[in-house]
Amino acid sequence: QIMKQVPVRFDLKTLHIPTYSAEKLSSLKDTDWNDFLQQVCSLLDSTEKNTGAARSKLNLLYYLCTVAVHKEVASRLISSQLFPILIQQLRAAANWDIRTKVARVIGLLALHTSELGENVPVSEAIILLTELIRENFRNSKLKQCLLPSLGELLYLIASEEEKREHSRECWVVPSAAYTVLMRCLREGVRPFHGP
């Protein structure tokens, strides 16, 4: 059963960064881009535990979902210092809402990026998503949030390796990722067709 993602809306008033459109972001000069990225990273990386901080992070992630669908922006973001911070949030965020939105941003970046740098830690993201799916295997709602991102990352690596002569060591995919994926497909929630 495929869960249709609801359109994402962010609140302009509570977003503590400049809310550039994807087009504007893609044309930013390097210094402005770096300033923007710095603000995004420090907001995401903040360790405040109150509900206001969690809401701010969620709002920022909603914003990132809207700009990550632009090919050039996705390519720049996935290759930036933001990607390791997204992985860290996926691993450490206490709030599952944040974790699932982080997974969605990662999936959108993987889907829309047109170029993957060799230093992008996609293997780390795949390992982590695999572990989270395995640990929460009985939680179908959570699986439906995490599986699309895992699939997009696997597809991105396969596409990149097809473009190049030989596979890259930096994009090693653990066999556990395929095992978990196949198990999810085998034991997936099937639509009910009646007797």
Automatic annotation (TrEMBL):
InterPro entries in UniProt: ARM-like, ARM-type_fold, ULK4
Tell me the superkingdom of the source: Eukaryota
Q: Which UniProt keywords apply?
A: Kinase, Transferase
Q: Which GO terms describe its molecular function?
A: kinase activity
Output this protein's name. ULK4 kinase
* Native source species: Dromas ardeola
**Lineage in the entry?**
Eukaryota, Metazoa, Chordata, Craniata, Vertebrata
Q: Which gene encodes it?
A: Ulk4_0
